[in-house]
Write a structure and sequence with these properties.
The chain is mainly alpha-helical and 234 residues long. It has one domain (2-232). Helix content is 64%, strand content 4%. The protein is built from ten helices and three strands, in the order H-H-E-E-E-H-H-H-H-H-H-H-H. The protein has a three-stranded mixed β-sheet with strand order 1-3-2. The longest helix is centred in the middle third of the chain and has 28 residues, at 103-130. It is globular. The N and C termini lie far apart (67 Å). 28% of the residues are buried. Mean pLDDT is 92; it is low at 5-19.
Length: 234
C-alpha cells in the first residue's frame, strides 16, 4: 500500500511540476503569469540593491488585463501589464502565424518573446524611470531595455532560448520591410516617428527585432550586474 501511495504522490508532483510555467512558454494561467513576473521583478530589484542598497521599485507589480493591450510598463500606476494567451493570442494570431511561417511557429514566437525575452525588458523601463535615467528618445529607451533583457537572461543561463530568439528574428527580418526611408538616419527617423510606427505591428516588429539582432551579436556588452551600475553613476 505504501508503495502504491508513493507512486501516486510522485505522479501528482510530476503533473504539478509540468503544469507550472518556467518562462519562454505560453501562459494561460493569469495567477502563474502574475506570480512569476513578480518574482522576476523581485529578483532584479534584489540584484540592483547589491549595487545601490537604497534603490527600490516602490511596489512595482504585475497586472493581468482582461482585455487586449500591448504588454507594457506604465509609470503612472507603477505596474507592468502582461497578457495571458487567451487575451493576447487571438488578436495577434494572424500576425504571429505569418511571421513564424505556421501556427505552431507563431506560437513559439510568442512564447520566446512575449513570455520570455520581453518580461525583463519591461522591468528595464521601470528601472530607467525609478533611477531618473529615462532616455531622451524612445529608440534609446527600447534599446537599453532590450540590452537589459538580454543580459538578464544570459545571467540566468538561458543561452539556448536566446539562440532560439536570434534564429527566429533573423528569419522574420527577411519578411519585413524597413520602414526607414533610404536617405534618413535610422535612429533619428524612428525617434521622430515612434508613435506612428508603434501603431503598425510590421513596422514596429522591424524596429524591435533589428535592435535585438544587433544586441545579441554585441560582444562588448558586460555582464548584467556590471551593466546596471550605469544607472547609478554620478
Amino acid at each position: 500500500m505504501k508503495r502504491i501511495l508513493s507512486i501516486l504522490l510522485l505522479s501528482w508532483f510530476c503533473i504539478i511540476a509540468k503544469a507550472q510555467n518556467n518562462y519562454f512558454e505560453i501562459y494561460t494561467d493569469s495567477a502563474a503569469l502574475k506570480n512569476q513576473n513578480d518574482e522576476l521583478i523581485g529578483d532584479i530589484e534584489t540584484r540592483v540593491k547589491l549595487v545601490e542598497p537604497c534603490f527600490s521599485f516602490k511596489g512595482l507589480t504585475t497586472e493581468i488585463p482582461k482585455t487586449f493591450m500591448p504588454g507594457q510598463y506604465r509609470s503612472k500606476t507603477n505596474k507592468i501589464y502582461q497578457l495571458t494567451w487567451q487575451i493576447g493570442g487571438p488578436p495577434m494570431e494572424s500576425f504571429l502565424t505569418e511571421m513564424g511561417g505556421s501556427l505552431d511557429k507563431g506560437n513559439a514566437l510568442a512564447a520566446l518573446f512575449f513570455y520570455g525575452f520581453f518580461l525583463p525588458h519591461e522591468v528595464g523601463h521601470a528601472l530607467q524611470y525609478h533611477t531618473n535615467n529615462v532616455p531622451e528618445n524612445a529608440y534609446d529607451g527600447e534599446y537599453e531595455a532590450n540590452e537589459l533583457a538580454l543580459l538578464y537572461w544570459r545571467s540566468k543561463g538561458r543561452d539556448k532560448e536566446l539562440q532560439q530568439c536570434n534564429e527566429m528574428v533573423k528569419k522574420i527580418l527577411t519578411k519585413l520591410k524597413n520602414p526607414v526611408p533610404k536617405n534618413a538616419e535610422a535612429k533619428t527617423y524612428i525617434a521622430a516617428h515612434y508613435n506612428e510606427l508603434l501603431k503598425d505591428p510590421y513596422k514596429y516588429a522591424f524596429i524591435q527585432f533589428s535592435q535585438i539582432v544587433k544586441i545579441l551579436g554585441d560582444r562588448s556588452l558586460p555582464d548584467f550586474d556590471t551593466y546596471i551600475k550605469k544607472y547609478f553613476r554620478k
